[in-house]
Amino acid sequence: MAQWEDVLGALVQVRGRALVRYATLLTGDERAAEDLVQDALVRCFGQGRPLREVAAAEAYVRRTVLTIFLDGRRRTVRWDGLRHLLARDETTADHEPAVTIRVDVHSALATLRPRLRACVVLRFYDDLTVPEIARRLDLSDGTVKRYLSDAIAQLETVLGPLPDAHDEDVHLIANGGTR
Description:
The chain is mostly helical. It has 8 helices and no strands.
């Protein structure tokens, strides 16, 4: 048995409960803490790292527990901030209106010239600003504003008034402002 395997066995045997208590203080949940310690042990010893003494290994595992916990919290906070953007109202029994709207939008986009379509997609799908679109397409800001204005006007002839576009972007475009 390699020396790091002896260290892992001794660490789990002697300091395992202390590591779980430490993780419990971080997570507030003993089961989540056990999973966190397990993840940290796998990350620390999974590739046969040369940890040769229990005290150094414990410090390394504690640091890894903290890192995994903080990364998980960052992901959770980030996900909580984005989840509403991806969540759909699942109580709708009839999906036909949403499908019809999506098909209409795709059809309307298909009527646009490629540059106009690119500007619309970058603006409303990728949520880029006018200067960012201009840099991506190697155009001037004024040209991007004109393309967006023309595209919105053309889309409105097919789809009807676009309230979101008019409330914010059309006024910005018309007034020469950027977002």
